[in-house]
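Write out the 3D structure for:
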Amino acid sequence: MNEMSVTQEPRLTSLAHGGGCGCKIAPGVLADILRGGSPLPVPPELLVGIETSDDAAVYLINDRQALVATTDFFMPVVDDPGDFGRIAATNAISDVYAMGGTPIFALALVGMPVSRISTATIARILDGGAAVCRAAAIPIAGGHTIDSVEPIYGLVVVGLVDPAHLKRNSDARPG
């Protein structure tokens, strides 16, 4: 299947059961799932964790620097492979910016049904994501790949923020 022609390949969106971002677990269901687990220790250096539904976690390194880390991936929301890669990468990188941070590197998260999508199409998805990372001047320093039933692509993005300039959902005000 790796050398199949583009005309034989299915549309990317036909391989995603929930329409890409529509596959998220509903917030109420997620809260129920998380409530059932054992509580984990929360160190004082963890400035932002899961409790506020922010876009990223933030961990204090020192008085002037904190690490911003986010994971974001989804199934195809468009059929063009390059566009899918660009959209997914932009979405992940923007989480660091939303926290007031500056991204410094990314790790790719790739799951593809390799028996249904050609390696050339998968490469176009990754190239789209890489183009966004190049434009943001950050390297893709590694990642993880799996052969999956449905295509998923995204990034782990790590950045830095001055704690004094950290932006949280809880700090948002109307106007």
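DSSP finds three helices and six strands in the chain.
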